[in-house]
Amino acid sequence: MSKSKNTFYTALLFLTTSLVFGQSEATVQFLLINPSNVAMGKGGTSVVNAYYDPASVLFNPANIADMDINNRFSVVGQSHLKSSGWLPQLTSDLSYTSLTNQYGLKIPNTRLKLATGYSLIHFDLDKQDIYAEDSPIPIATFHSKEDAHVFTLGMNYEYYIKLNVGFNAKKFTSKLAPALSDTSQAGDGSASGWGYDWGYTIKAPLIDWYDFKQHSKIIKPFLSLGYGFSKSNIGDKVTYIDESQADPQPRIARQGLNLFGGVKISGNGFDFDILSINYSRELSDLLINRYTDSNDEIQIEYEGGNGNINFWDNIFNKNIHMKVISERGIEVNFIETLMVRTGKHKDIRGRVIYDTFGYSFHSVGAFKLLNFIDSDLTQNNSLYSFLLNSDFYFDYYKLEPINCGHPLDDTWHTSLGVIIHF
To answer: What is the CA radius of gyration of the chain?
Structure first.
């Protein structure tokens, strides 16, 4: 088991930015990898978003309710496209992919919107050779990998203030090593189990000028503030071989703020952003406490509440506990077509600090602009109407550690997605 497990945890030491120091503090750490290219371009901030980001539901299930359901039904699909491989400076064996499909429904005659989704996470640790104890010749190979199937349910209620709540149920499987020949051990080098996430977001407009009903076309400034909270990976301990040495899931708490403002145009029955900027701050803490008891035995227990996060003191006074991860990011959105992002991730305890950069291209902004210029384009043109009610997009991000030669150097990722409204 040593080769595959050591490769796994060496990689995850950097990949999850040192949230977990010892191998025995938590397992299935691939659940801490942020699957959102949008979030990673903004330093990793994803607990509350300015707008809908499908992949962010894996860090806060309430985000699924950000889906724009102006019509009766919406369908979303997104998948990772290509990457540099995870930690290319450390090893070329690791790869991470995710896929999500989400559906939204507006309940007639109410202010409620419901959304549900399914996401697949696959973390591939490549193949390892298996040797006999007395021979240098490989006798077999073993493919190490981890998977999670995530089922999401979210609800949105909006009356001036927008409230989202959400819940994830995830079935994970971890295969880090082949079964041991020692039959005295109960496990086989693999583990599986269920974990659960819950979260909520609250968004309130700070500036909301003009009444669209009195103006056919108008430029409108806007500004809103959002707060988000989530708690992830709640569940039983995980056993690979010996049940007495079971490790906890990486339970984690996240809190964040998002300030979103800009200028939008309203007309021809719709509105879209001409220029907008959103800024996010986020804090997270792994809710696992490892200590030595009076018998000199190592004990591991979950922390209650938000762990070491003191949100208002951390955000406004910047008095951040050494165990708390802080992230911040900013995004500029041009006509809902081009989004450019930058951010910073700072882990004091793990001494991992890196900058991030990312961008996205969306089709919907271009078609909204054309429709604003000439609304007759949609008449008797089913293809154009479909494109106007859909969004095809491409996301990219890259990590830039402040220390040259860091294993995170040259780590980048891309994804493709589509949103269709019926």
So the answer is: 23
Q: Which residue has the tokens 């995980």?
A: 238
Per the CB < 8 A criterion, the answer to whether 104 and 84 are in contact is no
Nearest one of 378, 283, 281, 391 to 339, comparing CA atoms:
391
Phi, psi of 235 (to 5 degrees): 175, -175
Token readout for 128 is 């390892």
What are the start-end ranges of the H helices in 294-363? Answer: 311-316
Residue 305: half-sphere exposure toward Cβ, Cα within 13 Å: 6
Given a cut of 60, is residue 297 above it in pLDDT?
Answer: yes
Candidates 187, 220, 186; CA nearest to 205 is 220
pTM: 0.86
Exposure of 179 in the CB half-sphere (CA atoms within 13 A): 7
d(CA 397, CA 343): 11
pLDDT digits (tens, 9 = 90+) for 39-67: 999 999 999 998 889 999 999 999 999 98
What is the domain range of residue 403?
2-421
Rounded to whole angstroms, the Cα distance separating 174 from 24 reads 15
pLDDT at 188: 64
Cα(232)–Cα(297) distance, integer angstroms: 28
C-alpha separations of 22 from 247, 323, 344 in Å? 11, 14, 25
Residue 245: Cβ within 10 Å count: 11
Output 352 or 213, whichever has higher pLDDT: 352
Burial status of residue 217 (CB atoms within 10 A of its CB: 0-12, 13-18, 19 or more): exposed
Structural domains counted in the chain: 1
Torsion sign over Cα 372, 378, 382, 384: negative
| C-alpha pair distances (Å), 302 with each of 26, 141, 227, 242, 280 | 10, 37, 25, 20, 28
CA atoms of 346 and 53, how far apart (whole Å): 23
pLDDT tens for each residue of 207-216: 875 544 444 4
Residues 6+ apart with CB under 8 A from 296: none
All residues at 6 or more sequence positions from 349 whose CB lies less than 8 Å from its CB, including other chains: 18, 21, 322, 323
**What is the domain-level CATH number for residue 283?**
2.40.160.40
Residue type, 255: Q
Average pLDDT over residues 368-384: 77
Q: Count CB-CB contacts under 10 A for residue 204.
A: 13
